[in-house]
């Protein structure tokens, strides 16, 4: 049994900064409770809250375009984004899934 249960990416935009300093990206994984992490890895709890969820199917190379679409949908909605990390959950593995069939869930933090 693998200790790794889910791979995810966390991204945040700080509009008070400019250029590459605006963006923070963290790679993450959800692991089994008994997982002994090695040096260099940090354990951080996942803060809950309300999220809008979207599902994208296709190449990881097109995720930026998917995020553009999602952000357009958020601006047109009645929901306000919360200042927190957006979450990408990679449902499938490129090791056994054709690139055009890869599913990614995109979670956008919203105000309650």
Structure overview:
The structure is a single chain. The chain is mostly beta strands and 112 residues long. It has one domain: Regulatory factor, effector binding domain (Multidrug-efflux Transporter 1 Regulator Bmrr, Chain A, Alpha-Beta Barrel). It has one helix and five strands; from the N terminus they run E-E-E-H-E-E. Strands 2-1-4-5-3 form a five-stranded antiparallel sheet, with helices on one face. The longest helix is centred in the middle third of the chain and has 14 residues, at 63-76. The termini are far apart.
Number of domains: 1
Largest sheet: 5 strands, antiparallel
Task: Give the rounded overall mean pLDDT.
Answer: 87
Continuous helix count = 1
| Weakly predicted, low-confidence segments | none
Brief overview, please?
With 112 residues, the protein is mainly β.
Features:
mainly beta, five-stranded antiparallel sheet, 1 helix
